[in-house]
Amino acid sequence: MPDSKVRVRFAPSPTGALHIGGVRTALYNYLFAKQHKGDFILRIEDTDQGRYVPGAEDYIVRSLEWAGIHTDESPSQGGKYGPYRQSERMDIYHTYAHQLLENGFAYYAFDTPEELTAMREKDATFKYDASSRNTLQNSIVLSQKTVQEYLQAGKSFVIRMKVDAHQEIEIEDTIRGKVVFNSNEIDDKVILKGDGMPTYHLANIVDDHLMEITHVIRGEEWLPSTAHHVLLYRYFGWTPPEFAHLPLILKPTGQGKLSKRDGATFGFPVFPLQWNGGDEIFPGFREAGFLPEAVINFLGLMGWSPGTDEELFSMNEFISMFSLERIHKAGARFDFDKAKWFNQHYIIISEDTYLASLVKEGVTKMFGVNFDSDYIAQVCSLMKERVHLLPEIYTQGAFFFEEVRNYDLAAVLKKYKPENHAHLENMANLILSSGNAVEEVIKNYIHDKELKMGEIFPVLRIGISGTMQGPDLFKTIQVLGNQKASQRLLKAISLFQDESKKVS
Ligand code: GLU
Asked: How far is the CA of 12 from the centre of ligand 1 (A)?
């Protein structure tokens, strides 16, 4: 289909929170679509009623919005190929299932779940396929009359696709190259279930065809299903889309697939946003303090590489550089430190007002005070170079929002000299009276009195922020305001004086 417009879809099932791997799948589809000026479609695959989780669809939509992955067609936006929720397309699947029945590519199977379980108990390798179907209860074996009677009597049934034995099913995967399955390895998959719902296999390919999807870009775990899908395309006489199966995302150890439980095991989020699923609450990248730009950069490189050492990419840069050919075959290790490294970069280059808008809620919650956005922005400007996660702006910079709780006494007592005390008091007073000239005045004072910078600065710093790790002393004073800084210093040096008496 070289001339047709690129149309790709992200087709999650609303069975819970969208795993970060799902966001990567959506991202790669989006990048590919936008690079080709094509369409990116969100289709909700909700035919498995047993696994349906309320709130999951909304979570998926919010996650994509947060990540900046914009859909062209979706259940809420609509579009000319809708509806985009599979549960609203039942008639379509029934029509196509019956078309397969009529053409001999599918059959009714009346075996009860109990009978099938018994078969499996007898023979663990049991498969419903060309080798076993002739001994089972289905419309291939039973007379037409019996089948009609069963159907009329309302006996429950499923519809299975008929997979002939000894065939090679070849898939040309853009990432993996040629993948060949032997039809003897696969079973006669159910395509329409006892409850009248289609299975994933039928609904997925019918929709991909009707929605004119040109490229199917999805996780590697779907590769085995593709054999069935290719057969279904053949049965319908349709041209399959191009397939590209993305590598797995691996645990940080590199051993095995990253699972949703790994978040708790390794102490990092594996979901984009916090998920509240009844008694299960999973933290999200957003709540951990990630910027969407960082998550996109991180995910963009988890499985794809630009072919150079370059690592920093915005969404638009990814769109122009992305290619399916440069997706790796090997699994991509989830490296949380790398994610934080990206986040640090994006925090540093972000506008202070933007950062302030993101941390304001956290600040209010933590300190119980509604701080002015301008003030928070000034704190962000000083703290942003020093943090990896947004909340660190106000946890490490708590002294901007409340009095110092803990002084680094060990460090300060190494520098505090009782003979300097009067000078420190004088400096606290100078801070109060020097307006914008604090830096100059204090430096001059230290110089004029021939004090040692190395004995004075640490005391001033720890006196004002509790720590040596904080941002520049004079910028900190400027943000706190001369009065607060002065008062704080006076209080702190008297504490240091008392403490130094205790140790001496
Ligand atoms: N509904 C499937 C899922 O949950 C879609 C797989 C595909 O993209 O074909 O991931």
From this structure: 5
